[in-house]
Every structure is written in C-alpha cells, then in structure tokens.
Design brief:
Elements: E1 2-6, H1 11-15, H2 20-29, E2 34-38, H3 54-63, E3 68-74, H4 87-98, E4 106-110, H5 125-138, E5 141-145, H6 151-165, E6 172-175, H7 189-195, E7 201-206, E8 209-210, E9 213-214, H8 225-235, E10 240-243, H9 251-270
Parallel strand pairs: 1-2, 1-10, 2-3, 3-4, 4-5, 5-6, 6-7, 7-10
Antiparallel strand pairs: 8-9
Length: 272
C-alpha cells in the first residue's frame, strides 16, 4: 500500500504563505510516493476562484517525476443544480493530464453538497455519463468519492454510469471510511470495504471522525482503523492510502503521529 497526502492537509500552511512547491518537495523528501492535488489547497497553482492552472501544476509535477499525482475537485454531480458546462471540469481534466508524468492521468471528483435521499432517477445522469466518457476518451482515470449522500444513491449512480459505458470499474471509487459518518451510515463502512471489488477502488482516504468533526490526527474514533487495515491487508489492496487529516500549523508532526498510529494498527493485529 502506498502512503500519500491530500493537499488540504496543508491548508493552514498555505494560508500562512507557504509555497505549494515547497510542501510537495518536502512530502517527496519524506517518502510520500502519492499526492492528491486538492482544489482549493494549491496556493498559486490555482486562481483566486480555485480554478486550476495546469501549466503551473505541470511544472510542479516535472520537478517530482517519481510522485504519482491526481487532481481532486469538488463538483455536485449528484445534484439537479449541477452545471456540467463549468470551466472547472475541463480545467480539472487538463490538470490531471498536466500532472501525470510517467503515471496515468487521474481526476477525482467529490460531491460534498448533495445529501439524498436515494432517487430512482439521478438528476443529470446523462451529463455525468458524458463527462465520464469524455475522461475515458482523454485517457484520464476518473474516480468518484462518496460524501454526505446515502451510499445507495452514490453507488447506484456509479453503477448506472458504468452500465452506460459498458465498464465494470469505470469510473472508479475513492473509498473514504470516515465520510460514512457524514451520511449517518458509519456502520456500512467495514462491510462495504470487505465486499467491493478491489478493482473498483482507486484509492482510500485515511482520516478520523469523532464528536461531529474530522480530527487533526489519526486516532480512535468512529472508524475502527485496525479492522479496516486488516481488511485491506487480507484482501491484498496495494493502492494509494491518502492521509486527509484536518489541517493545522503543526501538520508535519501530526502526519508523523498519524503514520505511527496507522503502523500500530497493524502491529496490534499481529500482537507485536
């Protein structure tokens, strides 16, 4: 499994004036092989209205050719209000292509607004199918992440897109165990991680939820990470594991502590 970072971990540092390039290089030098470039947390590599600047992102990726980047953005793809003509979507595709280097271009999209309930017909389904087909034609891997919406609404929509494209695993799923707490469905996380095909999971987000909020460290909380790590190891998952802990001024220390907690989840299981 490949430990990675989502750049929203660095938001506090970026707000204090840190350069995104310096943060990426520090992550590289700290042996993080995968980085998710999250819209809204890219410093000067995006506009004030958080539109990607693919040229600047390409320069950043060129400095770190051994890092596997993906570009991640928020877009309400499950909502009837979604405008699939927004420039942000085409710029997201361009950003994924610009940062690919020796790796496959990868765009991750999350709908942080839509809550549900599950509907028989997803609004804008045809537009989502068209977007997914466009990514496919460009050679861009597309991942969709669940958030506040019920799993049945999210996964039902993903399944309809796959059926239309005649694909088993495209678009892929960014699996985020802690996000199930946002939808009031935390009890589903472990069982789904054990039943979904590994081939349809492109990445796993690692963070913790407790007392109504996401935490600044990986520690005890709503997600039983020892159980989840056991499931990932037993099933042979070897994809990215992106730390997405809440941002703070001492984020590097908290990342170190979170990695130690993650390793302890494995040693506790083995009795070490």
């Amino acid at each position: 499994m490949k430990p990675g970072i989502v750049t929203n971990c660095w938001k506090a540092l970026l707000d204090q004036g840190a350069a995104i390039g310096d943060l990426v290089r520090k992550a590289r030098d700290s042996d993080f092989p995968v980085i998710e470039l999250r819209q809204g947390c890219l410093g000067t590599a995006e506009t004030d209205s958080v539109l990607a600047r693919p040229d600047q992102l390409a320069e950043l990726a060129a400095e770190c050719p051994k890092i596997d980047f993906d570009y991640a953005m928020s877009f309400p793809f499950l909502s009837a209000e979604a405008n699939f003509q927004e420039p942000a979507l085409s710029l997201g595709q361009q950003a994924a292509l610009a940062t690919a280097g020796q790796f496959a271009p990868h765009l991750r999209i999350v709908d942080v607004n839509t809550t549900g309930p599950a509907q028989e017909n997803t609004p804008n389904l045809d537009a989502l199918i068209q977007l997914s087909g466009s990514c496919q034609q460009l050679g861009v891997k597309l991942s969709l992440e669940h958030s506040r919406q019920p799993w049945d609404l999210f996964y039902g929509t993903v399944s309809q897109v796959r059926q239309a494209l005649q694909e088993d695993n495209y678009p892929a799923i960014c699996f985020d165990p802690a996000n199930f707490s946002l939808a009031g469905e935390q009890q589903l996380s472990a069982s789904l991680l054990g039943s979904l095909r590994l081939s349809e999971i492109s990445m796993v987000h690692i963070k913790q939820f407790r007392d109504g909020r996401f935490l600044e460290n990986l520690e005890a909380g709503a997600v039983d990470w020892q159980q989840h790590r056991s499931l990932l190891e037993d099933r042979g998952y070897d994809g990215p594991l992106h730390l997405e802990i809440s941002s703070s001024a001492d984020i590097w220390q908290r990342l170190d502590e979170s990695l130690r907690y993650w390793e302890d989840c494995s040693s506790e299981r083995s009795g070490g």
